[in-house]
Amino acid sequence: MGILKNKSWFVIFILLSITSVQAQNQETLDAFTQSYTNEYNGDYTKAIQNLKKIYSEDSYPINLRLGWLSYSGGDFTNSIAFYTKAINIMPYSIEARLGIVYPASAVGNWTLVETTYKKILEIDPKNYTANYRLASINYGRQSYKSANYFLEMIVNLYPFNYETTILYAWNNLQLGKTKEARLLFNKALLLSPNDTSAMQGLELLNK
């Protein structure tokens, strides 16, 4: 009888545990659903509050979403904090690192922006966004050789892409590679006929 009683209590414990987990899962689902609805309506404060009711320090999805919602609502400091927590929870997450760049850019923290992109490339060397934006950053600094390093990676992966082609064309022009630049400006026109930037580049080459 003692064994049967113990088994009965064990079964009850298991059932109660399952019920508790199901209730928590439903609560989380409801909170996310309400949060999406409020975000869609442009009420970021309520969307954030929905998730803070179920907030868990070690929840990647909650911290990631709070990072996005805080950024969307203009709270860049908290956005960076939430994205940082998400990255700490999932150190190989690229989406969280791409996310943190938005608030970092908004507050002018270019060091964080650049180090974040470089970290992404440590994880995923062929990542399009990180390579392209590092190329753009270096082009803006007139560091054309550094920009070329990142561009060479993505133009081989995406050879018929406008934004990479036009940037690569201008970068080649700045490096004095006029033949390569001409070919690239003409390719850019295939992607975007009558493109102003490509036509300006060709005009400079024809002078």
Verbal overview:
There is one protein chain. The chain has 207 residues and is an all-alpha fold. It has a domain at 125-207: Tetratricopeptide repeat domain (Serine Threonine Protein Phosphatase 5, Tetratricopeptide repeat, Alpha Horseshoe). Helix content is 81%, strand content 0%. The protein has eleven helices and no strands. It has helices at residues 2-40, 44-52, 60-72, 76-89, 94-106, 110-123, 128-140, 144-157, 162-174, 178-191, 196-206. Helix 6 crosses helix 7 (128-140). The longest helix is centred in the first third of the chain and has 39 residues, at 2-40. It is elongated. Residues 9-21 have low confidence and may be disordered.
Put simply, the count of helices is 11
Biggest sheet statistics: none
CATH topology of the domain at 125-207: Serine Threonine Protein Phosphatase 5, Tetratricopeptide repeat
- Classification by helices and strands: mainly alpha
Reading the helices and strands in chain order gives HHHHHHHHHHH
Report the CATH superfamily of the domain at 125-207.
Tetratricopeptide repeat domain
Distance between the termini: 101 Å
Low-confidence stretches: 9-21
Helix content: over 70%
Number of strands: 0
Measured by DSSP, the beta-strand proportion falls in under 5%
Shape estimate = elongated
Question: What's the CATH architecture name of the domain at 125-207?
Answer: Alpha Horseshoe
Query: What is the top-level CATH class of the domain at 125-207?
Result: Mainly Alpha
Arithmetic mean of pLDDT = 91
Based on CA atoms alone, the radius of gyration comes out at 25 Å
